[in-house]
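Narrative summary of target 7.
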Amino acid sequence: MPRLALISATVTVLALIGGVAFILWGQDADDQFAQCRGSTVAGGAGQIGGPFELLNGAGETVTDADVITEPSLVYFGYTFCPDVCPLDVARNAEAVDILTERGVSVTPVFISIDPKRDTPDVVDDFAANMHEKMIGLTGSEDQVKAASQAYRTYYRAEDSDDEYYLVDHSTFTYLVLPEQGFVEFFRREVTPDEMADRVACFANAS
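Modeled conformation, tokenized:
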């Protein structure tokens, strides 16, 4: 029995050492944001994000360079969403307010994946009601699809003639920095305080 216990303990220790080694080897030594990350992306952060061209609330064509002028929290959703989107966007808005109190300026961005109903006016009203700094964006079906694909998001509208149709979609929030691009994503369960802590870390490290 003592021998079996010793073997078992040795295997456990080796497994722990191997796990730690894997974690350490898997990290990029040159990653300036390593201490801030709470998630990992297959293929690296460079696989998500990129240029887009959409319409703002005034109906003007804007690019990612026009919109991402400071640390930004980007969310893909739609204004007719009955529950998920309003809660997620409100969480993002609360995190922005917490960060403002800490002296960190962040812009919340809402990109509609329902261009059929979400005209510039509709998106503008939605964004303004959620937060005074929020930028609402929409566009043609092709523009929205291109932006969604750049951020590797998913969406699919119900095949229905009902004007109240739903749109199934992913619910990540993306942190994007002007110089670095996409650096982190947040799941729905992340609280406003947790989000603010991580965003502040990235902002201060950039």
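The chain has two domains: 1-30, 45-205.
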